[in-house]
Amino acid sequence: MEDTIERRGTSLLQAAVRYAEERGWDVAAGTWTDVVDGDLRCSCGEGACLSPGAHAVRGDWAASAVGGASAVRRLWEERPGAGILLPTGRSFDVVEAPEAAGFLALARLERVGVALGPVLLAPDRVMRFFVSPGAVGKVPSSLRVLGEGAYVVAPPTRVGVRGVVQWVRRPTAVNRWLPDAGELAGALVYAVGASR
User: Fold this and answer.
1) Contact of 67 with 27, CB cutoff 8 Å
2) Measured on CA atoms in the order 43, 127, 96, 152, is the torsion positive or negative?
3) Are 109 and 146 in contact (CB under 8 A)?
4) Quick one: which of 92, 103, 71, 95 has its CA closest to 1?
5) 30: phi then psi, degrees, rounded to nearest 5
6) Which has the closest alpha carbon to 106: 120, 93, 123?
7) pLDDT per residue as tens, the chain (196 positions)
8) Strand partners for 151
9) Fewer CB within 10 A of the end CB, N or C, for the chain?
10) According to the model, what pLDDT value does residue 137 have?
């Protein structure tokens, strides 16, 4: 988690602009949190929100996803504290694994020299491995794939009082080219089985 200390002061706007500029990823502004009567509440208004400050505002969120620094800046001028949502199925898909299995798979993949893409860890204790689009059908059904129509919440978005989404392997020039989901499937399936 090298990125945690290095980027701790990065604002949501700076991160969203960097994703659009440096990676060419589309970005959508999600909900945000406010302090109401001393409690951290989600802008959606739902008292029992499961992902406060870290989900889509509306059902048509995908249509509001933008690319390019200027468009991203406009979004965050309207909602400065908005969580960062990255649509999957466009520039990348995501394969999910529980945290313990994800770290086991990550170590195994690095040991055998598989070129990995970015990997993030969310407060829900799920690791998300970025892979090239088209992952659905390339991994066993025991693994969850986020493709077209879904999104991931990106760092440094805070998920209420549960914590901040963090990069385990941050996006860099070295991992610009994403692996095919099939390259990771074996290690992830093994790790999920071994960590049960």
Assistant:
1) yes
2) positive
3) no
4) 103
5) -100, -155
6) 120
7) 333 333 444 699 999 999 999 999 999 999 999 888 888 889 999 988 999 999 999 889 999 999 999 999 999 999 889 999 999 999 999 999 999 999 999 999 999 999 999 999 999 999 999 999 999 888 998 899 999 999 999 999 999 989 999 999 999 999 989 999 999 999 999 999 988 7
8) 87
9) C
10) 87
Output the six-digit token pair for 77. Answer: 């001028």
Residues listed for the chain:
196
Measured CA to CA, the distance from residue 57 to residue 193 in angstroms comes to: 35
How is residue 118 written in tokens? 């970015």
